[in-house]
Design goal:
The complex is a heterodimer. By secondary structure, chain A is α/β, with parallel strands linked by helices. Chain A has 10 helices and 19 strands. Chain B has 3 domains: about 10-160 and about 315-375, FAD/NAD(P)-binding domain, CATH 3.50.50; about 165-310, FAD/NAD(P)-binding domain, CATH 3.50.50; about 415-515, no CATH class. Chain B has a 5-stranded parallel sheet. The structure holds flavin-adenine dinucleotide (2 copies). One flavin-adenine dinucleotide binds near residues 13, 41 and 211 of chain A.
């Protein structure tokens, strides 16, 4: 059983784990090289989705996570009081539509497979979809409504989890970069080398998002996390005309594909602030931060296919980040079987906001030796689908 | 055989004094030039004037150096080798890797390249940028997209003036000095009957003069800096610049105009509040100490119907940042003696490299254009410009020393003073949220409070928000050892600046409020539309990029 943990990374995954461990009585220190919530968790959207996942372990994790969010939001609101900004949690539901004749049948089949796995996925007539979203392009060819899709403001959620972790005794140290490992004679990890000196640790939890791969290397371990770049466009404020999270069916292809080339699929949603977010792209170009006009042009073009009225709306901002991508599309949650004392919570790709709470519960169970709420084995580093990638550099 | 030398194409963004001078110098060296400006006239902030449809006989009297402007403008307009595109908003600059560039032929508008452009100078490597422009009235139905891939890019986007918040600063009738001057010079509209001009810096004087020229009564110019500070910076009189005789003469002219209009010039005073129900009716003017903190008991209420306030300048840095240009610690574009930025082929001139006034902008622009067109800063014909630049060098530092914003201004604020007007974020909320979250990064603070996320994208409030967040002791993040960790953080004003050479780019881990990859809003329809093939200038490059 673990009694003190040093967490590397103050993104939403590190924050959720810090809070859950601190609440469970573990002594927690979070080390963050930048500012809190300055990484990927501040550069994406806050969709908490079940709609985009096919049957399998990731869907199980997402369904479990969806069940945790409402209570967590209430608990944090009670604990942090009215002075703390709202998490903007809203279970507004998702609407997935096909925009081509060829896309209709695959969408319905996907929804049927999700229903079999227990997801509330309602195939609805196109007319009903247009009642839910009156501004939607009437040319859609199929529609599925997912009442359980929700959203949260990811930066506020991260900050709230950290504030709560601090209330439960955790220390959050920003501006401290982890650069290496301290091991004992047996090879066990007993601390970290950082830009602010050595930090002893009973256990280390690596939650460094897309940088977990390079940080793992600094600790002497291979972890095949890679950045998968994504960009989002933000409109100026406008009257509320998009009521759900609305996706085109291509989305599934993009999330499930490992293709490195540019892919975009439309995700259109309103925020509490009155802006509309248009997402998003997926491409593997390393940590390349440069704006690409062809990418945002494609995002804009596809968004218009869903909502033609947006043609006259204005884009005022573009931002983007690097999803922590795993080659087998599953996060790594749990103990490292190669280095004693090292634990992982990384590789959530485009779903880390939603999955953060469930990840934290699995980790607490693993670290404290309590019963896991769902089967943790599919997320273990030792899983077969990862084996080829753990050997590469040896 | 002597290889034919292909005409270099120089793209100049901004047609203020710096951009106009750059365009002419580049033409004189034989480059083909495209000069873009978002507004509907050349001249920039300084030579703002009535549209040709409403000519005025009085421009000469209103503008210092009007004949300089006319000469520059007329020469460029007559010149077939210079294309002037107005209503041309650069909305993005993309960085293209040098390795992407397989074809050395630049992307100038083919029609502007008079010389048979087929022959390429193999030694020429175009600037590693693609400049994306929308041309047309911003509120029109659909602007036309154009993309430029020039051999050299000169950025001359200027600065806008900065106004610090105070209670009531969001009332109608409160103007930035720049807006007031634009009204007065560009529209000839009086702002009100009784006008107060306040803030800091030598440019308050010409603003007061322009406002007075519209027939308004200027009740006074209230300069926050103390006389002692002014004397140190400006010796011996606030309107006389050390070493810049010409500038001194010009400002002395304004003093004369002040005398004519009987405008009192008072230092060590600030407008600390504006009052009124639907629009400004009165202001509170207080004496302030050397830190600009109001001195209790000195407040005085003055009835007024318009207030022009300006406390300094913010350079328009979004395009240089997007192009990847390094900045100085003072947050201007870093340039060398040839006005070269850190990005090969990209030059900068005028107010984005330092606040130096119109003559400095003209000199820097001339040097930038000349070097961008292939010349050297040591060429004899640049002698006068290089000399002028030397004269004005340090002007920015002197303005900063005498008039730079002092930290005491934050005590003007009430809890409900709006800091970010677009998103209506009051000071109290900013402070409380910072405390509740232990004041972490700038990016997180913006996203938790929404300060700076509105339509102006932090142009008005960005640096104010940075300073307010940087004001406290622990904004760099808490540290067990009890001292703020500041190195490399994206937070406090001083510790904020990103010195990395790749400061440009969209996804930089370190945030600053100057970064705006989308430099100006555009319609989704405009973005989605493919560029108009008849006006796009990318086709010369596309030949090399199948
Ligand atoms: C465009 C886009 C859209 C997205 N949309 C969604 C969505 O709608 N829903 C959803 O659930 N997810 C979404 N995501 C994915 C989600 O943002 C990520 O999965 C999630 O933020 C990952 O969180 P994290 O805590 O693992 O990583 P991060 O937030 O990146 O946190 C890792 C932290 O570790 C720090 N760090 C790294 N190395 C070190 C070191 N050596 N020492 C100290 N600190 C270090 C970093 O500075 C960083 O702050 C999106 C992502 C993108 C890019
Ligand atoms: C209120 C005020 C009073 C002043 N009074 C004096 C004075 O009395 N004496 C003096 O010497 N100086 C004065 N100045 C300073 C003077 O105006 C500047 O020194 C001078 O205008 C700087 O020239 P510039 O070419 O660098 O920039 P500007 O004149 O600001 O020109 C920049 C141009 O770039 C264009 N631009 C910016 N971004 C884009 C984009 N993305 N796409 C397309 N176009 C773009 C703008 O439309 C603008 O026309 C004053 C300034 C202000 C604000």
């Amino acid at each position: 059983m673990v009694s003190d943990v040093v967490i590397v990374g103050a993104g939403i995954v590190g924050a959720a784990c810090a809070r859950a461990l601190a609440v469970a009585g573990v002594r927690v220190t979070v080390l963050e090289r930048g500012a809190a919530a300055s990484g990927t968790s501040a550069k994406g959207e806050g969709n908490l989705l079940v709609s985009d996942k096919g049957p399998g372990p990731e869907l199980d994790l997402a369904v479990y996570a969806a069940s945790l969010w409402p209570d967590l939001v209430d608990e944090l609101a009670d604990e942090l009081g009215p002075a703390f900004p709202s998490l903007e949690y809203e279970r507004k539901g998702g609407l997935v539509v096909a925009t081509t004749a060829a896309g209709a049948e695959p969408l319905r089949a996907f929804a049927a497979s999700q229903r079999a796995a227990g997801v509330d996925a309602r195939a609805i007539p196109n007319g009903t979809a247009l009642e839910l979203e009156p501004w939607l392009n009437p040319e859609i060819t199929a529609a599925v409504h997912y009442p359980d899709d929700a959203q949260v403001q990811p930066v506020i959620a991260t900050e709230a989890l950290l504030a709560s972790a601090r209330n439960h005794g955790a220390a959050v140290r920003t501006g401290v970069e982890v650069t290496g490992a301290k091991r004992d004679a047996s090879g066990r990890l007993i601390g970290l080398v950082t830009t602010a000196g050595d930090v002893p640790a009973g256990a280390v939890l690596l939650a460094a998002g897309p940088w977990s791969g390079e940080t793992a290397r600094a600790l002497g371990a291979i972890l095949p996390v890679r950045p998968r770049r994504g960009m989002v466009l933000v409109t100026t404020r406008m009257p509320h005309r998009v009521f759900h999270k609305v996706y085109d069916g291509d989305y599934f292809g993009a999330t499930q594909s490992s293709d490195a080339a540019l892919q975009t699929s439309s995700v259109v949603e309103s925020t509490a602030a009155g802006t509309v977010l248009l997402g998003s792209s997926r491409e593997q170009v390393g940590f390349d931060e440069r704006l690409r006009v062809d990418v945002i042009r494609e995002i804009a073009t596809k968004a218009l296919r869903l909502f033609p009225f947006l043609a006259n709306a204005s884009i005022m901002r573009a931002y983007g980040g690097f999803r922590p991508f795993m080659p087998d599309h599953l996060p790594v949650i749990g103990e490292d079987h190669r280095i004693a004392g090292l634990w992982h919570a990384s590789g959530h790709e485009g779903a880390g906001i939603g999955l953060s709470l469930a990840t934290a519960e699995l980790l607490v169970a693993g670290m404290l030796g309590t019963a896991a709420p769902i089967d943790a084995a599919p997320f273990g580093l030792a899983r077969a689908s990862l084996a080829p990638y753990l050997e590469e550099a040896a | 055989m002597i290889a034919a030398i292909r005409t270099r194409t120089v793209l100049v963004v901004g047609a203020g004094p710096a951009g106009l001078a750059a365009a002419r110098a580049a033409r004189e060296r034989g480059a083909s030039v495209i000069l873009l400006d978002a507004s509907d006239a050349t001249g920039g902030q300084y030579w703002r004037h009535l549209p040709p449809s409403r000519p005025s006989a009085n421009e000469r009297a209103l503008h210092h150096g009007w004949s300089t402007y006319r000469a520059l403008h007329d020469e460029l307009e007559r010149d077939d080798g210079c294309e002037i595109v107005l209503g041309a908003q650069v909305w993005a600059i993309e960085r293209t890797d040098a390795s992407d560039v397989t074809d050395a032929s630049g992307g100038a508008d083919a029609s502007a390249v008079t010389d048979a452009s087929a022959s390429t100078d193999a030694a020429t490597v175009p600037a590693p940028v693609a400049v994306h422009v929308l041309v047309g009235p911003p509120d029109g139905t659909r602007r036309v997209g154009r993309t430029f891939r020039p051999d050299a890019l000169v950025l001359a986007t200027g600065a806008h003036d900065r106004t610090l918040p105070f209670p009531g600063w969001d009332l109608p009738g409160v103007f930035t000095a720049g807006a007031a001057q634009a009204f007065a010079k560009g529209e000839r509209v009086a702002l009100g009957g009784r006008v107060v001009v306040a803030g800091a810096g030598p440019f308050l004087l010409p603003v007061a003069a322009s406002v007075a020229a519209t027939g308004a009564k200027v009740l006074g110019v209230y300069e926050a800096s103390r006389v002692a500070g002014l004397v140190r910076g400006w010796l011996p009189k606030p309107w006389q610049l050390i070493g810049a005789a010409k500038k001194g003469g010009e400002l002395a002219g304004y003093v004369g105009s002040h005398l004519r209009h009987r405008i009192p010039y008072v230092t060590g005073r600030a407008v600390v509040a504006a009052h009124g129900a639907d629009r400004v009716e009165a202001v509170t003017i207080a004496e302030v100490d050397a830190d600009w903190a109001p001195i209790a008991g000195t407040e005085r209420r003055v009835e007024t119907d318009a207030v022009c306030v300006s406390h300094g300048f913010t350079p328009r840095l979004e395009l240089p940042i997007a192009a990847g240009c390094e900045l100085t610690p003072e947050r201007f574009v870093r340039v060398d003696d040839g006005q070269r930025t850190s990005v090969a082929g990209v030059y900068a001139a005028g107010e984005i490299t330092g606040i130096g006034g119109v003559d400095a902008a003209l000199a820097e622009g001339e040097i930038a254009g000349h070097v961008a067109a292939g010349g050297s800063a040591r060429d004899a014909d640049l002698g006068a410009a290089v000399g002028a630049r030397r004269t004005f060098a340090g002007f920015a530092a002197r303005i900063e020393a005498a008039h730079g914003i002092r930290s005491g201004w934050t005590s003007w604020l009430d809890d409900d003073t709006l800091v970010c007007r677009c998103e209506e974020v009051p000071y109290g909320r900013l402070r409380d949220t910072r405390e509740a979250t232990c004041g972490s990064g700038l990016r997180s603070m913006k996203l938790t409070t929404r300060a700076g996320l509105g339509i102006c994208q932090g142009r008005i409030c960005g640096r104010t928000v940075e300073e307010l967040l940087g004001a406290g002791p622990d904004v760099g993040g808490e540290d067990d050892a009890g001292h703020a960790a500041s190195a490399g953080l994206e937070t406090a004003a001083g510790g904020l600046f990103d010195r990395r050479s790749d400061a440009g780019g969209l996804l930089d881990r370190r945030a600053t409020t100057d970064r705006r990859p989308i430099a100006s809003p555009l319609r989704i329809g405009e973005l989605a539309a493919a560029e108009d093939p008849t006006t796009s200038t990318t086709h010369t490059v596309r030949k090399g990029h199948p």
